[in-house]
Design a protein that fits this description.
11% strand, three-stranded antiparallel sheet, 479 residues, Rossmann fold, Helicase, Ruva Protein, domain 3, mainly alpha, elongated
């Protein structure tokens, strides 16, 4: 695209990164990788009151889990306070900003009055034209002022957006926003402008909610005599009901999806389609395919819809496409933490690999795997005789178990095909339909009415355990 592409992901550690944050990070990362540019990580930790302990660590771990590597950083704004203060003071000296001594109590009263009179909220510019003497008098009282930007009160400010085109704002709607707080920390508006300039950011890709703040930033760039980057505001993400995405829709921290057993490949694919598309039909794409095809031209102006059902479907597709070694390795930590406490740890990975092909088709998330495999590991099964009998009466169920035990005990090889050829003829011998007949065996072997293929399951469980379970079922129903 001519010059070097430099973009940044600049989260605030006031909470753990959620779907919207990570979608923004992903689009920046994809844009950088597609254009062979640079992706920076910057932690905007200037809001000290709302800072959440451990959030920065989770942000970096989440990016690492998704494979979104950064080329520079992390940079921390809290380590650059002198630079922000320097430019705030420069703007005051040049008459482009001013000291504001208004107390929080006065500002609260002002906002309440504006709300009561149904006026738009905003600072009333009381301190904008204080004389030098008035400023010195306020400072003599020990009041530490904030620094506010002198926004123009007339005319218009135009913002060129790479996704939305030209957007024009009336300057009369802009307030004199704070640049530097009384504690010496900058606001987002000042800090991100200074950092983007000194980090040579070429493009700012951020959420649509920041579009209304962009005229402030354009004016601030002009006041400092700097060339602004190009802006692209990404579409909102809505829930299936078209309301703002919330926790009930799935707007949880991204590491919760990791804990629930979603694959990073799935999340990259799914999040990329929240506002971008290759065409009208392609949904499954690997990381490199997305990088190769990513462009801002194909980013939508309209809101994207977060569909949890689609995410689960997509994760199931990715799980089924894993080779068995990879699937087993990814399952192992979930099985370790998810099996009942009485199961011996560590879990036998070789045994789990034998089980894995039987349940891979059924798993939508890795977190489901412990519930799909627990009967392979527990010593005793939990079921009642009603479940065991199913649609059969007691006599019929007893016949199924007794005949099956006799036939299976005679087998020299514990092979699934041989077992099925041996047992299936019993349905005709006993005059039963296959469904109710095999349901009894399935419950006896697995403790559930739905399971992986019965005879393949029995082969993995082994002769000894299967015969113990069949005899235990017979004893349970007879007692």
């Amino acid at each position: 695209m001519g010059s070097e592409i430099r973009v940044r992901f600049a989260p605030s550690p006031t909470g753990y990164p959620h779907v919207g944050n990570i979608r923004t990070a992903l689009f920046n990362w994809l844009f950088a990788r597609h254009n062979k540019g640079v992706f920076l990580l910057r932690i905007e930790d200037t809001d000290q009151e709302r800072k959440v302990e451990g959030a920065t660590k989770i942000i970096m771990e989440s990016l690492g889990w998704l494979g979104m590597d950064w080329d520079e950083g992390p940079f921390f704004q809290s380590q650059r306070l002198d630079m922000y203060k320097k430019y705030a003071e420069q703007l005051v000296t040049e008459g482009k900003a001013y000291y504001c001594f208004c107390s929080s109590e006065r500002l609260d009263a002002m906002r309440k009055d504006q709300a009561a009179r149904k006026l738009p909220p905003g600072y009333d510019r009381r301190c904008r034209c204080l004389s030098k003497e008035q400023i010195e008098a306020e400072k003599a009282k020990g009041i530490v002022p904030v620094v506010r930007f002198k926004s123009p009160t007339e005319g218009q400010t135009a913002v060129t957006d790479l996704i939305r085109g030209d957007v024009v704002f009336e300057n009369s709607t802009l307030d004199d926003f704070v640049l530097l707080k009384s504690d010496g920390y900058p606001t987002y508006h000042l800090a991100n402008i200074v950092d983007d300039h000194y980090m040579d950011i070429s493009h700012v890709l951020r959420a649509e909610e920041w579009l209304s703040s962009t005229p402030r930033h354009v004016l601030l760039y002009a006041a400092l005599g700097w060339k602004p980057p190009q802006f692209a505001h990404l579409p909102m993400i809505l829930g299936p009901d078209k309301s703002k995405l919330s926790k009930r829709h799935g707007a949880t921290a991204i590491n919760e999806y990791q804990n629930e057993g979603y694959l990073p490949e799935t999340m990259i694919n799914f999040l990329a389609l929240l506002g971008w598309s290759l065409d009208d039909k392609t949904e499954i794409m690997n990381r490199q395919e997305i990088i190769t095809n990513f462009s801002l031209e194909r980013v939508s102006k309209t809101a994207a819809v977060f569909n949890r059902d689609k995410l689960e479907w997509m994760n199931g597709v990715y799980i089924r496409n894993l080779n068995i070694d990879d699937f087993t390795a990814r399952c192992l930590p979930f099985v370790e933490r998810g099996l009942p406490p009485e199961v011996k740890r560590p879990v036998d990975a070789i045994y789990l690999k034998e089980i894995a092909p039987l349940i891979q088709e059924r798993a939508k998330t890795l977190n489901e795997v412990p519930q799909l495999v627990d009967f392979f590991f527990v010593a005793e099964l939990d079921y009642d005789t009603i479940m065991l009998q199913g649609k059969l009466d007691k006599v019929q169920a007893v016949n199924v178990l007794e005949k099956s035990i006799v036939m299976l005990e005679q087998l020299k090889e514990w092979d699934p095909d041989i077992m099925e050829k041996t047992i299936r003829p019993l349905t005709d011998e006993l005059g039963m339909k296959a469904g109710p007949f095999f349901s009894v065996l399935r419950v006896a072997i697995t403790g559930r009415t739905a399971s992986p293929p019965l005879f393949a399951t029995m082969a993995v469980l082994g002769r000894v355990r299967c015969m113990e379970r069949l005899k235990a079922a017979l004893q349970k129903i007879n007692s």
